[in-house]
């Protein structure tokens, strides 16, 4: 079917009947989704005129579709999956740029629609991408959408630079301030200190400069007072409910105090990666420039990390699996009434149905591990020993003897390098040590699980104490080598009692 203008009559009976409506708006500052609602209304009217049945409507609010977008689009991902499954015969949108403004993404979409024999409909026209003429017109629209995205980005970049140089406000309201608007036109007039949060900033500054408190102690006090964090405060300023968060941290305090806005300065970071610049702002300062300089020195740490470590910070994150979808498990922390609740949850955003308390889960897995390794038969298997490791030695003593011999050999090398041992003596004693080590190794069967942490546990007289002494990385290595851990969904919604049956630990 060639591209045709929308007619207020049903299409022929052989026209595809199943349609998926997709609507998107780049900005939804009021979060009322007016733009997407009007898009959906228009598409529903068009579908009724064409005789199509709308099988699903998918909406992405406050999401960009350009290559510069920083947030993903869950709705669009769902549309792509439904098309791939053959759930629709036509993709219906208000305009083509709702799908994407990136050319590479459009190419992928075109290939998928052609492969699945799905029509593309927008702007009152329908395109059969199997036809060269329709494919060319849709591609031209995609190029125009990309061009418009580039123009918008360039215009915004220039405007941001101009605003910064004149000291005008950035898009985000700094903590401690409140925006003022013209009552008649609704236009932005400026920003001024908000009484409560500005007083909090002033207190934090005095706490460091006068009382000598640390950012960490300030964060503790802020949490004790149940003071909203900057993120929570911004949501509440919009009239939204206070969200849950981890509360104040040392990093949060430093971000507020080191920010130039509270000193009446406008910061600008060029989009091209150029050097940052500070300009005199149009809003009143909460602290003086001298106080800010002192704060920067007081809150600067030469031993601070310059990047966030990727090392796991919890026992089972990305190690255990979800019992519903088989996906990885992540850590989740929520703050409620001054308390932090930690849990494990499925990391798959399309699942997320497994949610279980972290503390009891770690304790149960630890108990299973200690009980497993403490069993004499298990320890013998882990050590891979079939008979006494050396003449007159037991299973555990054989491993210890091997460690002693290895250490002795290292000491001999040190003595030789220091000149207190001759080469002949070193060679003779080393040969004796190597001979005994070979006998110990020959008496052992290959261990089913390798790794020094596993051997250290298996050769310990007190498995629980040795486990506690291991680093988190070593504990995770032991669990990964010994077990397959699956966390399952609660049997009833709102279940509060911890159920060990939800933690399935199997031998790897």
Automatic annotation (TrEMBL):
Pfam families listed in its UniProt record: Recombinase, Resolvase, Zn_ribbon_recom
Basic and acidic residues: bias regions: 222-237
Domain (Recombinase) ranges: 174-305
SMART domains from the UniProt entry: Resolvase
GO molecular function, one term: DNA strand exchange activity
CDD domains: Ser_Recombinase
Family matches, as InterPro entries: DNA_bind_recomb_sf (IPR038109), DNA_bind_recombinase_dom (IPR011109), Resolv_N (IPR006119), Resolvase-like_N_sf (IPR036162), SSR_resolvase (IPR050639), Zn_ribbon_recom_dom (IPR025827)
Stretches the record annotates as Disordered: 220-247
Protein name: Recombinase family protein
């Amino acid at each position: 079917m060639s591209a045709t203008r929308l007619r207020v009559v049903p299409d022929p009976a052989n026209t595809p009947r199943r349609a998926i409506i997709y609507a998107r708006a780049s900005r939804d500052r009021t979060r009322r989704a007016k733009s997407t609602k009007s898009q959906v209304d228009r598409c529903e009217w068009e579908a009724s005129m064409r005789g199509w049945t709308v099988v699903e409507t998918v909406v992405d609010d406050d999401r960009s579709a350009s290559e510069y977008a920083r947030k993903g689009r869950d709705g669009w991902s769902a549309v792509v999956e439904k098309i791939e499954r053959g759930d629709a015969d036509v993709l219906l949108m208000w305009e083509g740029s709702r799908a994407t403004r990136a050319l590479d993404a459009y190419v992928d979409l075109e290939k998928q629609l052609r492969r699945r024999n799905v029509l593309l409909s927008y702007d009152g026209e329908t395109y059969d991408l199997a036809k060269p003429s329709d494919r060319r017109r849709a591609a031209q629209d995609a190029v125009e959408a990309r061009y418009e995205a580039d123009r918008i980005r360039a215009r915004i970049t220039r405007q941001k630079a101009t605003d910064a140089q004149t000291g005008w406000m950035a898009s985000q309201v700094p903590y401690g301030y409140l925006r003022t608007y013209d009552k008649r036109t609704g236009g932005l007039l400026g920003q001024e200190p908000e009484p409560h949060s500005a007083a909090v900033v002033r207190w934090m500054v005095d706490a460091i400069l006068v009382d000598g408190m640390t950012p960490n102690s300030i964060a503790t006090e802020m949490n004790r007072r149940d003071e909203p964090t900057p993120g929570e405060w911004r949501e509440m300023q919009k009239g939204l409910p206070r969200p849950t968060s981890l509360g104040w941290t040392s990093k949060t305090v430093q971000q507020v105090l080191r920010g130039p806005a509270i000193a009446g300065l406008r910061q600008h970071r060029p989009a091209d990666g150029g050097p940052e610049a500070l300009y005199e702002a149009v809003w009143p300062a909460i602290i003086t420039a001298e106080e800010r300089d002192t704060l920067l020195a007081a809150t600067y740490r030469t031993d601070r990390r310059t990047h966030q470590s990727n090392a796991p910070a919890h026992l089972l994150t990305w190690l255990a699996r979800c019992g519903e979808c088989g996906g990885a498990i992540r850590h989740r922390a929520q703050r409620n009434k001054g308390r932090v609740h930690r849990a494990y949850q499925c990391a798959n955003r399309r699942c997320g149905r497994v949610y279980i308390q972290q503390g009891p889960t770690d304790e149960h897995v630890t108990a299973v591990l200690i009980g497993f390794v403490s069993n004499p038969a298990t320890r013998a298997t882990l050590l891979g020993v079939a008979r006494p490791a050396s003449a007159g030695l037991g299973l555990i003593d054989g491993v210890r003897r091997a460690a002693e011999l290895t250490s002795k050999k290292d000491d001999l090398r040190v003595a030789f390098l220091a000149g207190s041992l001759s080469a002949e003596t070193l060679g003779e004693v080393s040969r004796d040590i190597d001979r005994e080590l070979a006998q110990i190794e020959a008496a052992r069967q290959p261990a089913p699980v390798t790794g020094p942490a596993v051997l250290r546990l298996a050769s310990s007289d007190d498995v629980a104490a040795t486990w506690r002494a291991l680093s988190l990385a070593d504990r995770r290595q032991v669990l990964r080598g010994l077990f397959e851990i699956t966390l399952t969904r609660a049997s009833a919604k709102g279940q509060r009692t911890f159920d060990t049956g939800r933690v399935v630990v199997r031998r790897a």
